[in-house]
Amino acid sequence: MDSFHREGDEPVNVFEVDEMYLFKHYFDGEDVFDRLKSYYNNQQYRFEVPRNDFGTVRSFLSNYGYGLTVVDATEEFAVVVKKYTSHPENIFKESVIRRNVNGYNCFLMKDQDAVEQAVSEGAIPLTKTKFENPF
After folding, report:
1. pTM above 0.85, yes or no
2. Residue 12, Cβ neighbours under 10 Å: how many?
3. Is 122:81 a contact under the CB 8 Å cutoff?
4. Residue pLDDT, tens place only, 101-134
5. Which of 19, 38, 106, 115 is the most exposed, having the fewest neighbouring CB atoms within 10 Å of its CB?
6. How far apart are CA 46 and CA 24, in angstroms?
7. First to last CA, the chain
8. Which UniProt keywords are listed (predicted)?
């Protein structure tokens, strides 16, 4: 993981997918969201930051006490659920992106707590399947 934050910063996991940096987080204060709203995807409820802008966004958030950590091992944050079956309650709210693979939905979860909750409700960790990492 590529970590860039000071002691005491609130950690935020960031995932590089399709040449964009994706993350979900609720930021306290209108100043922070106002500065980032051009990167916010309202349909997906996530921030999407192009590579060229990531350093500036990371520095800005660091000044407000948020430490962005780029996650290299995305497979450790991914879970799988068979399509057209019941899904864990948190999976859509806590996932950053979803991809379809061979009749399954693969979800990239925003943090390990979200992974653990999804698994406890029936999702399968991607690492325990034979699927390649779709992220």
Report:
1. yes
2. 19
3. yes
4. 999 999 999 999 999 999 999 999 999 999 999 9
5. 19
6. 5
7. 15
8. Plasmid
DSSP annotation of 88 reads: -
Measured distance CA(63)–CA(68) in Å, rounded? 11
**Tokens encoding 18:** 């399709």
For 3, the token pair is 């970590």
| Model confidence pLDDT, tens digit, residues 7-64 | 568 999 999 999 999 999 998 888 899 999 999 999 999 999 999 999 999 999 999 9
Cβ atoms within 10 Å of 45's Cβ, excluding its own: 12
Amino acid residing at 129: T
Query: Which two structure tokens, joined as six digits, stand for 53?
Result: 């802008």
Which residues in the chain belong to E strands, given as ranges? 2-4, 10-17, 20-23, 40-41, 46-50, 66-71, 78-82, 95-101, 104-109, 124-125
CB-hemisphere CA count at 13 Å for 33?
A: 11
> Sign of torsion, CA 114 116 120 122?
positive
